[in-house]
Amino acid sequence: MALLTPQGVKEVFQCQKPQGREHLRRLLKWEEFDELRDPRRSILLDVLYDSVVFAVGKGFPWAEVAQVVKFTEELLRETKGKGRPGRRG
User: Fold this and answer.
1) Does residue 19 carry a pLDDT above 60?
2) What is the rounded distance in angstroms from the CA atom of residue 47 to the CA atom of residue 62?
């Protein structure tokens, strides 16, 4: 689970996207990874970074931005491997 602080997500937001993603990765205590060889992790990091940008854009306070990232990470973990309802295959 993300151990993010309001200050941490503020720092992520204040960086350009590549640096912000890297800072977020460190805040999440993820090991470094090869984005080309591990596209799932790269996409997950993008989703979490985009959740920061979205929440800030909606005017959330920094503490709530951190909660959005935590919620998003938990939601993605809980739904991993689950298919869409009504989908055949």
Assistant:
1) yes
2) 18
The answer to whether 52 touches 13, Cβ cutoff 8 Å, is yes
Q: What is the pTM of this model?
A: 0.85
Residue 5 to residue 10: CA distance in whole angstroms? 9
Which sequence spans correspond to the domains of the chain? 6-75
The pLDDT score that the predictor gives to residue 89 is 52
Q: What is the mean pLDDT of residues 43-68?
A: 96
**Rounded alpha-carbon distances, angstroms, from residue 64 to 34, 55, 87:** 30, 8, 34
Identify the CA nearest to 52 among candidates 14, 3, 80.
14
For residue 39, the number of C-alpha atoms closer than 13 Å in the C-beta half-sphere is 1
Tokens at 32, concatenated: 């470094």
Sorted by sequence, the CB contacts under 8 Å of residue 74 that are 6+ apart come out as: 1
Has residue 87 got a pLDDT over 70?
Answer: no
